[in-house]
Amino acid sequence: MMAHPTHEALLQAGMRLAERHGLGNMSINAVVAEAGVAKGTFYVHFANRAAYLVALHQWFHNGLRSAIIDATNTFVIDGNLAKVMAWYDNEWGFSNRMVDLTKLVLSKG
Questions:
Q1: Which of 39, 42, 45, 82 has the most CB atoms in a 10 Å sphere around its CB?
Q2: Number of C-beta neighbours around residue 62 at 10 A
Q3: What residue spans define the domains of the chain?
Q4: What is the pTM of this model?
Q5: Which residues contact 30 (CB under 8 A, 6 or more apart)?
Q6: Taking the domain 5-108, which CATH number applies?
C-alpha cells in the first residue's frame, strides 16, 4: 500500500533534514517548512514528534532493505540473499534499533 503523498513528503523532508543536521535537533517546524506543508497537516499524519521519528526510522530501514535486495539480486545465488538479509535484519533492522531511537527521542523531549 502506498503512503499518502503528503505523508511521504514529510518523511522525505525529515530525511533531508537528518542528513544536514541530524535527528537530535529536528523540530516539527523544520519538517513542515522543508516539506512545504502547514503544521496542522503534520498532525494529520503523525501524533507527535516521537511518532514521526519512529516512522522516519522505519521508512529509512525499509528503503535501505529494499535497496540491498535490489542491488544483490543480480549476483547473490544459492540462497545467500536470505543470509545477507538475515544479517541485515539482525544487525541493522528496524526492531533492533527501535529501543535506542525511542530513548533518544524521549530524552530530547
A1: 42
A2: 11
A3: 5-108
A4: 0.69
A5: 17, 21
A6: 1.10.357.10
